[in-house]
Design goal:
With 320 residues, the protein is mainly alpha-helical. It has 16 helices and 2 strands. This is Heptaprenyl diphosphate synthase.
Length: 320
């Protein structure tokens, strides 16, 4: 195993940025402009970071690690574009979405182009398992988008439905990042399995926190209106828990329609903001983080462990 400082990690993140720029480059001006716009719109590069950290638990560094990280980010970028089309969203990270800045057709084609380029990127890797896992990842992301679409304004869905949805929407790609980062660096099977679970637990927690912040943060920090998920018909954990504990709230959700007056949505959002279900949701998130932390403690690379534990602290304390 080998240790990397954060300086080395930062250098590799820059290399991933170069690869992303290379793959999104197109001689078709509109696609090129839309991809560049998305790339520079403030993404956190969380999946590449997890890939790089997980690679520290392997025996041999490989350029495949960079390619895996690039591929996963391209898949993620494509999913964001498609999500915005499905939700008819006008803003992402405080900026107009591609569908808003250009049009829906351009957004769909841009998302498809990014997915195609992710396949182009992974073709540079010679390991069949990496191909298979990344292909399955694309399938699951698509299933997640379908689940989210099917569950819109469906009031009788279960918390299990929600967990399945966020697994495909967020946890899967983070889990793949930690799994394939370790695998590409030739980590042993047991370590790869542990890192896969760690990525899953962190991904689940991260999305639950995201769903909490949709109510507790500000429009400026969110880059979109507070309560956007509920306004788009996405029933997240705070809402589902509130429905279990309040018959009146559940009845209001049952009557909710896409064209319900904004005052109705405002009232429901305010009820969630004042409810104890936000803290209960936080407890579920922290439960996933604790499971991740327990597994991290069993790993061997101290530098990698430290970075993973720092991420857990940031998620636990995250407020935007």
């Amino acid at each position: 195993m080998y240790d990397k400082t954060k300086i080395h990690i930062n250098k590799e993140v820059k290399e991933i940025e170069k690869q992303l720029n290379s793959y999104i480059n197109s001689d078709q001006n509109t696609i090129n402009e839309a991809c560049q716009y998305l790339l520079t719109s403030g993404g956190k590069r969380i999946r590449p970071l997890f890939t790089l950290i997980a690679s520290q638990f392997g025996e041999h560094y490989s350029r495949d690690v960079i390619t895996v990280a690039t591929t996963l980010e391209l898949i993620h970028m494509a999913s964001l574009v498609h999500d915005d089309v499905i939700d008819k969203s006008d803003k992402r990270r405080g900026k107009p979405t591609i569908a808003k800045k250009w049009d829906v057709q351009t957004a769909v084609i841009t998302g498809n182009y990014l997915l195609s380029q992710s396949l182009n990127a992974v073709s540079q890797i010679e390991h069949p398992k990496l191909h298979e896992q990344l292909a399955n990842g694309i399938i699951e992301v698509c299933r997640g988008e379908l689940f989210q679409f099917e569950d819109q304004f469906v009031s009788n869905q279960s918390i299990t439905n929600y967990l399945r949805r966020i697994k495909c929407k967020t946890a899967l790609l983070i889990s793949l990042s930690t799994e394939l980062g370790a695998y590409a660096a030739r980590a042993d099977d047991e370590t790869v399995k542990k890192l896969t679970k760690i990525g899953y637990y962190i991904g689940m927690s991260y999305q639950i926190v995201d769903d909490i912040l949709d109510f507790t943060s500000t429009e400026k920090k969110l880059g979109k209106p507070v309560g956007s998920d509920l306004r788009n018909g996405h029933l997240t954990l705070p809402v589902l828990l509130r429905m279990k504990n309040s018959k009146d709230f559940k009845a209001s959700i049952n009557e909710l329609q896409p064209d319900s007056p904004s005052e109705v949505f405002d009232g429901l959002v305010q009820e969630i903001i004042k409810s104890p279900e936000l803290q209960k949701s936080k407890e579920v998130s922290n439960h996933y983080l604790q499971k991740a932390e327990n597994l991290i403690d069993t790993l061997n690379n101290e530098s990698g462990k430290k970075m993973l534990l720092e991420i857990i602290v940031k998620i636990r304390d995250r407020n935007h």
